[in-house]
């Protein structure tokens, strides 16, 4: 008993000093605080052995796992929780156990005090938003001061401070099958991750409402034993991603020559495109990807990020294996999506409204060529470097690409490229202010995928890039027509039409100049069919809705993310894992903010038409 008292005193001292600790409590029990927080997850494993709970407990920032049935849990818990109240003003304890047979709900949340009702309702709502959890019920028992009727063993609430909030989670083991309790691993993982996400959100809500602290005060670090695995997986995913450049591999190397031949043949012969040699074996990369033990990561948000990226890389490998074949288009539809009728209608409306602003039939008088454009782009890079001296990248003039392309933070410009001077600033903000800025900001994150791009980042990224053009006053009607024309071209292709049919449609019906129509058709039909070009307009439309809802635009520049990742990003920032953006693009500063304010009050995409 003296040893117990001594160990308990040491724990209380660590809590007071905010020291991280992992403590073995003989003979088989363990208390872990990866950070001292006013929260404790209790799992009495001796009473409720459950494979999901055994994994869930490890994902919590602070937990007490009890294997010894003889342990008096209250003797240990009560002093610790009272110490929390002294340090933080309040604390939350959540206990979980396996439901008894016959429970209909996936999870019952048990409470015995009214002061915990609001936070229990919040947890219930979070759980119900998860696809893997069907039904949640809150069970209230205020007739007793003990949790004897609520949980497998008692914690005497009358011995605890009224600022200690207790909830019990009675969980139906739907991830165990039959009388022999066969584990369904995917169901178990989804269930565990759903509960972990909900508990994390509830913890921060509890801090915000019930404690003297602010949620931002708690930058929860992950268990040290998990970190090496997380970094290892991140590095290996990055290594596999950097073995190839997807866009360069699927883009023709002879686009300009193909255009000249196509024009010479009076637009009647399908051009022949040439592609770079394949420097990788997709099967080997797939094998390497699925050798990663992502299932061993306990943080559900990080595991989701990695699993999602692995799936995208897998699909891209399948696309590269099918380059030039029908399977490439099917893969593109999986990775980049398709054009639906609603998006097609908006694209057609834009083309109709701007029909009188069709492309100029004569050359612009003031044209900027590749070398001058490169110098102007370098000036923008110098502006960004003034924000962070560590920032640095290059501009390359190349003869094996068509147009302008950012690749791994480097601006590549075709030596044959030219553009009207009034479009220069818009294109610089598109390529440098968006693609390079998000690459560099993503590079400052601990995980590589934020600079390489999370799966499906292209829609938000291209939408943001086009928005940049608008904010600096360079989104012309002709530019909008091209974005809308790309949507029409993708839709036309996915309906089974040929290269020549799509080219003719753009020229004859929508009045695009032949060279512009060729470039749009080439981009859409490259490698067998790439639907990516429809993302520019769809991403812009979604981004306008995002702005109109009053949400933070700066957050979108922290890396190459997609919109439904934002809650994950915010959570990981709150945990201190991800960092705020280092660079701010020019289009999010004065005087361009006025255009952003006006956009919030606008009617949408059609407001951008001049």
Automatic annotation (TrEMBL):
Its cofactor is Zn(2+). Signal peptide: none annotated. Keywords: Hydrolase, Metalloprotease, Protease. InterPro entries: MATCAP. The keyword Hydrolase applies. This is DUF1704 domain-containing protein.
